[in-house]
Design a protein that fits this description.
The protein has one domain: Spore Coat Polysaccharide Biosynthesis Protein SpsA, Chain A, CATH 3.90.550. By secondary structure, the chain is an alpha/beta fold. Helix 5 runs antiparallel to helix 8 and helix 8 packs across helix 9. It is 41% helix and 15% strand. The protein is globular and about 40 Å long. Strand 1, helix 1 and strand 2 form a beta-alpha-beta unit.
Length: 211
């Protein structure tokens, strides 16, 4: 079993991405560390999501399922994939906690470990309507800036659904707000994270509270 770490950093994140990779390598937690760049998008993806990629956070960080799917394709069944944004803090003294996450992941039947986030303010009502699950808003979100996956048929399928659903929901731009249709505490759309949350709730991922 190999443990892979991937991240993505665009032109504004070169220094942060380099620091992130250095910390990851120094931690010795991972067998392989890969930082994807803007030029790593294929032509079809860049064309489809060009408008979204120009928005704040890349139109709801549309690159996450894209690069996670690509990385999984190059991995063996049973390998571990960790995705982390460049501002994710890697604590080289946190080996015990890291191993606990791996144990939870390896014991799960889904191959997915999600991390609970109490904030309810960043998913548009249309996302809940799309999944016919408006009541799920009250149960909180799952973060998508840190993701643990074990490659198996189930985890690959969830990532495929995430990628495909995001493509279908391009009509929900991150920066558009409609106060008439949203709760009073709604602050803005984090499209990729909202869809990820719904998929994990539907397909019963193991959840944990991040340190």
């Amino acid at each position: 079993m190999e443990i892979h770490l991937i991240s993505y950093g665009d032109k504004g994140y070169e220094l942060r991405s380099g620091y992130f990779k250095a910390l990851a390598v120094a931690s010795s937690f991972f067998d392989k560390v890969t930082i994807f760049r803007y030029e790593d998008f294929d032509i079809e993806f860049e064309k489809e999501f060009h408008k979204a990629l120009q928005l704040t956070l890349g139109g709801g960080v549309v690159w996450r399922p894209y690069f996670i799917k690509r990385a999984l394709q190059d991995m063996e069944d049973g390998d571990i994939l960790v995705y982390g944004d460049p501002d994710f803090q890697i604590n080289k003294l946190g080996r015990e906690r890291f191993d606990q996450y791996l144990d939870q992941l390896n014991q799960s039947e889904t191959g997915v470990l999600g991390f609970q986030h109490s904030d309810l303010k960043y998913t548009k009502r249309e996302v809940f309507d799309y999944f016919n699950a408006v009541s799920a808003r009250e149960t909180g979100q799952l973060i998508s800036n840190v993701i643990f996956l074990k490659k198996c048929n189930h985890s690959v399928q969830i990532v495929d659904f995430w990628n495909d659903t995001l493509s279908q929901m391009l009509t929900l731009p991150e920066e558009e707000q409609d106060p008439a249709n949203e709760p009073k505490d709604f602050m803005g759309q984090r499209q990729s994270q909202g869809i990820w949350t719904m998929l994990l709730k539907i397909y019963a991922a193991v959840t944990s509270c991040p340190d």
